[in-house]
Amino acid sequence: MPTILWLMKSYEYIALLGTLTWMTVPFFQFKSKHFIFFILIGLNDFIGLIFYYSSISSQSLWIPILYLTVLGLEKDFFIKNLKWIFSGLILVFMLNHYSSPLIQHLFSLLTSTIILIVFTWYFYMDYINNIISKYYIILSIYGLFSVYQSTLLISKVELDLNIYFVAMTIKILIGVILIFIKKDYQFSTKG
Questions:
Q1: What distances in angstroms separate CA 107 from CA 67, 72, 146, one per listed residue?
Q2: What pLDDT, in 10s, does the model give residues 62-77?
Q3: Given its phi and psi angles, is residue 55 left (phi above 0), alpha (psi -120 to 50 degrees) or beta?
């Protein structure tokens, strides 16, 4: 019995550390064109943690935040299209309210896949210009990891505490790396 209590306390500590990490990342990525994306990731973790401790389901906000996260991938696009994004947000709230958990998980997979494709595309565009961007390698890994998590949810794999510990540890590690790595951490492949 004490082992289970220790695991549950560890789960809470890791959730708190993950939330603090991802709420810190935007402060170090302020000048990045992905600043809004980082803010929304931190906000998503923060809201999830608050709802967890208040025993309220965060499901009603999960899909709308994912919607904003994808559209927040580029700060300039988000700011320029704010009116249309928030108009669409009303529709997303309505669809989210009437959708099944499977539809919500499929939406999560779709948004994760878009994030993976966008960051991989940025890496590729740098690469064909003879630049290796550590920044976009890390963000592509984040996208790949998000696709993996969404796939686990859809396939209804039982996510026990061990998988949670691994998932959060990787997510925390990516967040810590992003605190130290900026877009300009790259090197040329020209000789």
A1: 9, 16, 12
A2: 889 999 999 999 999 9
A3: left
Please state, in angstroms and rounded to a whole number, the distance separating the CA atoms of residues 183 and 92.
32
Phi first, then psi, for residue 155 (nearest 5°) are -80, 0
Q: Please, what's the b/e burial string for 113-132 (b: 16 or more CB within 10 A of its CB; e: otherwise)?
A: bbbbebbbebbeebeeeeee
Say which amino acid occupies 147: V
* Spatial separation of the C-alpha atoms in residues 174 and 180, rounded to whole Å: 10
**Sorting pLDDT into bands at 50, 70 and 90, what band is 15?**
confident
pLDDT band per the 50, 70, 90 thresholds, residue 47: confident
Assign 72 to helix, strand or coil.
coil
pTM as predicted: 0.85
The full DSSP string for 109-174 is: HHHHHHHHHHHHHHHHHHHHTTEEEHHHHHHHHHHHHHHHHHHHHHTT----HHHHHHHHHHHHHH
DSSP for residue 188: E
Structure token pair of residue 138: 């890390």
